[in-house]
């Protein structure tokens, strides 16, 4: 083996692990008021950015207007970073804040949903250039439980996330099924 050829593979990644972890909870403060919190860590890059990490957390308060319906106000914070061109010493950093308000509750014994509308502010720095974004955001979901331990959820949202060109707007629609 010649030395140059052996050295060319020293910084090559053979396998990587990706994580998308979330934790959320709520606490009933009184008969009418509940507090909520969430945390999220993600290293699954939206545009195959190298060394991508994203964390987010949020706090909220809900007010029960009826036994099965509550209003809510949530504030969420996020930060992501990536060393997208390590050899050139360039990196990407994105931070954001969002404010969301809406309703959630049970429509029937097997059907529940949530709808929120808000505003999002995002600052992105890409290799020295800065980009700012602000705009309306939404988050909605509808969950159906056809059986006691089976669930189907349709959700839709929009916002801004880190990308190889700085921050980019996105819209997401997903359908998930679960079996307990």
Mean pLDDT value: 80
Helix content: under 10%
Q: Give the DSSP E fraction (strand runs of 2 or more residues).
A: over 45%
Largest sheet: 9 strands, antiparallel
Query: How many individual helices?
Result: 1
Distance between the termini: 54 Å
Number of beta-strand segments: 9
- For the largest sheet, list the strands in their spatial order: 1-2-3-4-5-6-7-8-9
CA radius of gyration is 20 Å
Find the structural class using helix and strand composition. Answer: mainly beta
Order of helices and strands: HEEEEEEEEE
Please mark out the parts with pLDDT under 50 across 5 or more consecutive residues, or reply none.
1-15
Morphology call: globular
Describe this structure in words.
By secondary structure, the chain is an all-beta fold. The N and C termini lie far apart (54 Å). The chain is globular and about 50 Å long. 3% of the residues lie in helices and 72% in strands. Mean pLDDT is 80; it is low at 1-15. A hairpin with a 2-residue loop joins strand 6 and strand 7.
Brief summary:
The chain has one helix at residues 3-7; strands at residues 20-28, 33-42, 53-66, 69-85, 90-106, 111-126, 129-147, 150-163, 166-179.
Record keyword descriptors for this entry:
180 residues; nine-stranded antiparallel sheet; globular; disordered N terminus
List the helices and strands and how they pair.
Blueprint: H1 3-7, E1 20-28, E2 33-42, E3 53-66, E4 69-85, E5 90-106, E6 111-126, E7 129-147, E8 150-163, E9 166-179
Antiparallel strand pairs: 1-2, 2-3, 3-4, 4-5, 5-6, 6-7, 7-8, 8-9
